[in-house]
Amino acid sequence: MLRVHFPTKPYKTYSFERALACTLFHLGSSGDYRETAHAFGVSKAWCIVNVNYIVQVLAAMRSTCIALPQNPEAWEDVVEGFSQVRGFPFCCGAMDGTLIAINRPRDFEGWYNRKGYRSVNVQAVCDHKKRFIYFDIRPGSWSGAKIFQYSWFGRNIDRRLPRGHHVLADSGYGVSPAVMTPYSEKDGGGRLSRAQTTFNFKLSSMCMAIEGAFGLLKERFRILKKPLEGRTPKASVRVIVACWCYIIC
């Protein structure tokens, strides 16, 4: 499917396979074009053109792999998978965010996160197999709750999830019929009951799915471990493609 988008002119000096391999190497390493070009015996200029081209095509194809379940049977597979982890019923996904460092954008003020460096904030939902089924990318200064509020998923969650089901998230998100979060001490008058503590432990165990997904993503695509080069839209596209490749690779 990707091959049909690969141009025959003016950039096809080498094969499609080599261009795709360069792209995966670029994403899986430090993201240095010179290093990628040297590894595959191509010029740096060819590498830049073809890697960026394939990255753009992959980004446009993201919905082919990263999408919410489309029918009750697919949702039930996810619910059953989570239920087998800690016996947690009616769970359709685990939601959290991760910060990806970027170089200073032109309008840099809103990109500084709470830790003091420039980044994008990637919010994602994953299934029981640590596969992303939804994600959104916003400025690093945005909190998880704000991203959820403005995201397509947040605005449509009541209509997209099966009735009576929910996603799990940490205490940074507001609790609602479709989002389940841990009890806080103020809920128990300053001290949690044994039942509440057990609930929090099980919920935290379930949320390890999304934490593990982010960890695997960054280990597989190490370009995300260093500040992403280029303007913010270009950096965001690389995050999108890394998430897409994480699903299929």
Automatic annotation (TrEMBL):
GO (cellular component) term, any one: nucleus
A Pfam family assignment: DDE_Tnp_4
Domain DDE Tnp4: residue ranges: 95-244
Major place of residence: nucleus
Gene Ontology terms for molecular function: hydrolase activity; metal ion binding; nuclease activity
Keywords: Hydrolase, Metal-binding, Nuclease, Nucleus
Subcellular location: Nucleus
Cofactor(s) this protein requires: a divalent metal cation
Family membership: Belongs to the HARBI1 family.
Designated name of the protein: DDE Tnp4 domain-containing protein
Organism: Phytophthora megakarya
